[in-house]
Design a protein that fits this description.
748 residues, Aldehyde Oxidoreductase, domain 3, Aldehyde Oxidoreductase, domain 4, 28 strands, 28% helix, AldOxase/xan_DH_MoCoBD2, Xanthine dehydrogenase family protein molybdopterin-binding subunit, AldOxase/xan_DH_MoCoBD1, molybdenum
């Protein structure tokens, strides 16, 4: 369902639902994913991983593995240098342990062999002597002064004394007088919440093929959300010039932020350099869970004051995020997002990043925001219950709007939060009756959206068709949306445009496909590239007609005289202009590169209905509705898919998914049999409602949509379960044992 605003520009291609250009190849199996790429004479690479959560590497003996027939290369951290840049050093040390292992599954050595069987046999011959060290996997325990130290010397100067060295950074956002604000409240609630680490759950494991040539040049094929980032990191780690490493992004079988990082690519390149042959590496599912980045695990305290009529007078949150064994900045985004949906006079958030003996955290759709907003929206819901207020009306009363000073600093421009709230209020879901043991939960959500560096080239082919080359892997249908915007701007049918993702030698740098940036930033650059091509076509036709450029205009794929005074000329189509391009100056192309600004923030609200079995603690999601501002839905099918997909992942996060570590610090559930993601039978019909409040920072009003949809589900479902039980839930996931324990503790 689309709900549009008045005065919207009339589009012909944008806003329609054409087939995705890569759909057929993916359905019939012709599309090449990371594990599908091969090369003559290639070797198989495998990694030996630590069985300990924290241990010193006393010695590594690889001689027996090197002597095994079929083994062509064995590497350890000694095959890499020690980068001066601390961030690069963190990436390298995450890919291959140096000195000590920091988590269960940390890589310690790797082999390249002529077959998978030989490679696996070689791993068993590598002898590693460890000296086990104390470990810590819980974020609150890791902050205590006497906690085992994961890594020393990483504490930022902003961190106050009194914590262990595991607390590496601190941030603070907000404004106003908290003490005065809380004094105005009729009711104050303060609660603590925890969330477990969860994995993105992408179907395709990480895979790559590396080929290092004797002349120092290299080729790398990998499944990634950002091949320019992969090039920058890998070339630096291998001591190469970036131009000597060509990286090609394969099709991607799911990423959700989890493939914005580098895990095995430098290892494959190092093995190829040492063996002199191409090396292919594919992670097992066990490796994906143990050694790639899940979300942060969190511990949060929230304090909110409210008047009897529902006005929030003051709000405070303290966020403690476990970034794994290496520093990360996710807590800053969580602290910024926590109270973003509200217009508050007094608000403050504090955040601490904490090291634990876990793999380095990676992004997962709006990193840090779902956990923070879960805690905030839970307390808002509890205040509504205690004061007898409608939770949706309370959000309306306190909603951020244009001109609101946000909780994290900027003043909002045009935003769609109020429109989503009004749409939810008017929707029949909000007033539908509930039965026994059922509850309805509501939550608002927010994400920043990014712009960033983008480069696009648009070529007008001699037959009048259009080729667009851009540098961002398509993880959600962006080929279609980019083609639509090019077609819209040029006035040609969608079928005449083909968008391809170039390798790192084909087009200028593009930032990672993350931050909900691609449709916004690449779309903006595509529109500007199309306008560049249009200007060139207008110039050429003006020369042909012998009139000034100002005397011609572009309309619906034709160059026309601007007025009767310009002359009586028959309009020239893009096909006609392209056909004679070699006679008028050569090929016609438009180009645009930009560090895009103006990415509009995104808001959404979710309604969830659940039924909880009081005897077993099992939760069934009965109904789910998503309301979200897309700015402009370029391809509504894909916008709805993002909204539904985020909700589905949020349902799994809220009810079932979690990393479970034993007392030995080892991950207990590294596979989909024990780490349970939702299947079709777990999900209700998820109804998406698209709102379109144009973003003034984009020519077509586009906002990113890929991440906001995962922010509200945690709170919406927790609020629904809490209302169904009559017990406030404060821990995620709300698995049956967790629910039964909470009910028992409350004496219900």
């Amino acid at each position: 369902m689309n709900m549009r605003v008045k005065g919207e520009r009339a589009f012909k291609v944008v806003g329609t639902r054409p087939p995705r250009p890569d759909g057929v190849d993916k359905v019939i199996g012709r599309a090449l994913y990371g594990a599908d790429v091969s090369a003559p004479g290639m070797l198989t690479g495998h990694i030996l991983r630590s069985p300990h959560a924290h241990a010193e590497i006393v010695s590594i003996d690889t001689s027996a593995a090197e002597a095994l027939p079929g083994v062509k290369a064995v590497i350890t951290s000694g095959d890499f240098g020690v980068p001066e840049d601390s961030a690069l050093r963190d990436v390298q040390d995450h890919c291959m342990a140096r000195g000590k292992v920091l988590y269960d599954g940390h890589a310690v050595a790797a082999v390249a062999a002529t077959s998978p069987a030989v490679a696996k046999a070689a791993l068993k011959l590598i002898k590693v002597e460890y000296r086990k060290l104390p470990h810590v996997t819980d974020v609150d325990e890791a902050m205590k002064p006497d906690a085992p130290v994961v890594q020393s010397g990483l504490v930022h100067e902003t961190v106050a004394p009194g914590f262990s060295e595991n607390v590496t950074s601190y941030c603070e956002f907000g404004h106003g007088d908290l003490e005065a604000g809380f004094a105005k409240a009729d009711r104050i609630i303060e609660r603590s919440f925890t969330t477990a680490a969860t994995h993105q759950g992408y179907i395709e494991p990480h895979a790559c093929l590396a080929s290092m040539n004797a002349d120092g040049k290299a080729d790398l094929w990998c499944c990634t959300q950002g091949h320019y980032h992969v090039r920058a990191v890998c070339s630096a780690i291998l001591g190469m010039e970036a131009s000597q490493l060509k990286v090609t992004a394969s099709e991607i079988g799911g990423g959700f932020g989890g493939k914005t990082t580098v895990f095995i690519e430098p290892v494959a390149l190092a093995l190829s350099r040492k063996s002199g042959r191409p090396v292919k590496m594919v992670m097992s599912r066990d490796e994906v869970f143990r050694a790639t980045g899940p979300t942060v695990a969190t511990s949060t305290d929230v304090k909110i004051g409210m008047t009897k009529d529902g006005r929030i007078t003051a709000a405070e949150a303290r966020l403690r995020y476990s970034g794994g064994a290496f520093p990360c900045g996710t807590v800053e985004m969580g602290a910024q997002a926590a109270f973003a949906p509200y217009d508050l006079d007094a608000v403050r958030t504090y955040g601490w990043n904490v090291l634990t003996n876990r793999p380095k955290e990676a992004s997962y759709r709006a990193p840090g925001a779902p956990q923070a907003i879960y805690a905030v929206e839970s307390v808002v819901d509890e205040l509504c219950l205690e004061l007898g207020l409608d939770p949706l009306d309370v959000r309306v009363k306190n909603a951020a709007q244009k001109g609101t000073l946000s909780s994290y600093g900027p003043t909002f421009d045009d935003i769609g939060l109020m429109a989503t709230l009004e749409a939810a209020k008017a929707h029949p879901h909000w007033s539908a009756p509930l039965g026994p043991n059922q509850g309805r939960g509501f939550s608002a959500g927010f994400w920043f959206n990014f712009g960033g560096n983008t480069c696009v080239t648009l070529n007008i082919n001699t037959d009048g068709t259009v080729s667009v080359t851009e540098g961002n892997p398509d993880i959600g249908g962006s080929r279609a949306s980019i083609s639509q915007m090019a077609a819209e701007e040029l006035g040609v049918p969608y079928e005449k445009v083909r968008t391809v993702i170039g390798d790192t030698t084909s087009i200028g740098h593009s930032d990672i496909t993350d931050g909900s940036r691609v449709t916004f930033a690449v779309g903006l650059a595509t529109i500007k590239a199309a306008r560049d091509a249009i200007q060139k076509m207008c110039s050429r036709v003006a020369q042909i007609w012998g009139i000034d450029e100002e005397a011609v205009v572009w309309e619906d794929g034709y160059v026309k005289p601007a007025s009767p005074n310009a002359g009586d000329f028959k309009p020239m189509s893009i096909e006609e202009i392209a056909a004679i391009s070699f006679q008028t100056g050569g090929p016609i192309a438009g180009h645009h590169e930009v560090n895009a600004e103006g990415a509009g923030v995104s808001f959404g609200v979710h309604i969830a209905d659940v039924e909880v079995d009081p005897e077993t603690g099992a939760t069934k999601v009965l109904r789910y509705t998503v309301f979200q501002d897309a700015g402009k839905a370029v391809h509504p099918d894909y916008v709805e898919g993002q909204m539904q997909g985020g909700a589905a992942q949020g349902i799994g996060w809220a009810l079932n998914e979690e990393y479970i570590y034993g007392e030995d610090g080892r991950l207990q559930n590294p596979g989909f049999l024990d780490y349970r993601v939702p299947v079709a039978s777990d999900l209700p019909r998820i109804e998406p409602v698209i709102l379109e409040i144009p973003n003034p920072g984009h020519p077509y009003g586009v906002r990113g949509v890929g991440e906001t949809s995962i922010v509200p589900p945690l709170a919406a479902l927790s609020n629904a379960v809490s209302r169904a039980l009559g017990v406030r839930m404060t821990r995620l996931p709300m698995s049956p044992p967790t629910i039964l324990k909470a009910v028992s503790a409350a004496g219900v």
